[in-house]
Write a structure and sequence with these properties.
With 332 residues, the protein is of the alpha/beta class. It folds into two domains: 2-137 and 301-331, Quinone Oxidoreductase, Chain A, domain 1, CATH 3.90.180.10; 145-278, NAD(P)-binding Rossmann-like Domain (Rossmann fold), CATH 3.40.50. 30% of the residues lie in helices and 26% in strands. The chain has helices at residues 41-49, 97-100, 132-135, 138-151, 167-178, 190-198, 213-220, 235-244, 266-271, 284-297, 312-321, and strands at residues 2-6, 15-19, 29-38, 61-69, 81-84, 115-119, 123-125, 159-163, 182-187, 203-206, 226-231, 245-253, 275-278, 303-308, 327-331. Strands 3, 4, 5, 6, 7, 14 and 15 form a seven-stranded mixed sheet that branches. Strands 10-9-8-11-12-13 form a six-stranded parallel sheet, with helices on both faces. Strands 1-2 form a two-stranded antiparallel sheet. α7 packs parallel to α8 (235-244). The longest helix has 14 residues, at 138-151. The N and C termini lie close together (11 Å).
Length: 332
Amino acid sequence: MKRLHVEGGFGLDHLKLVDLPDPEPGHGQIRIRMTAASLNYRDLATILFGGHRLPLVPLSDGCGVVEAVGPGVTRVKSGDRVITQFFQGWQSGEPTAQGLATALGGSLDGCLTEKMVLSEEGVTRAPEGLSDLEAACLPCAGLTAWRALQDGGIKSGDVVVVQGTGGVSIFALQFAKAAGATVIATSSSDEKLERARALGADHLVNYKTTPEWAKAVMKLTGGRGADHVVEVGGAGTLLQSLHAIRIGGHVAVIGLLTGLNQEIPVNLVFGKNARISGITVGSREMTEQMCRAIQANGIKPVVDKVLPFTEARAALELMKGQGHFGKIALSF
């Protein structure tokens, strides 16, 4: 089998293609023939900046077919189409330090390989009606957006702000519309904003021409503010997010595209009675809930670009340029 891994140092120059024997599943394990994978910004950051042992097989998100099962496997069978679980050790309940230490493409080897062995507990059956490429977009971006809105208690009639048009934000737009919410989409590109409108976005704000976009959100909501902000920007956008929410509104902190550190006026947090949640993907139980919702609502992940898995470096360069809308995927 062929596998891409990072060896000898960090950076895209250290992404190497190797040939290895097919792995054999042990007790409670399955071997998956990978058919598709998708990229997240986290994958690019891991390859560029390190923080994990080498060699490392990157990527957390994949879809494939179970082709062999080890002794004692009961959850899945050969021939089942499955998606990977981002945290292999977080099946249900609240996050724990132990569960968060089991991320694919980080603590554990990930999906950039033709064959992979996982615990039978570390996969979920792919939703019917989705292609393998679409299903491969769910484990990180899809689940992160799902949990962000569920943790905020989304309900029909709420107002949701999504930042940008990357994978998490587009999923959040789709899930919010399925829940009956009004969506305000932000982007620096008018072209991308029009694509967001086609997916159901109710209001569009170009944050390049309107840097204080929180004021636009307040105006659009009649001075009330948004119920939820899906905060993928990080330090550079968090203050705007706090200004944009209503009293008692929810900010789901997910990304770090604009930095890691920001001074927060404490009076703004308690004055708004703000609810701020840190979101790091979710559990397998949440994945199963999301998949049921996707099937029930006919939601289709937005796959913008597809490259062969052996051209993963070119795909990562595309992600680095931030020119995509939705997801970048790889086919095997």
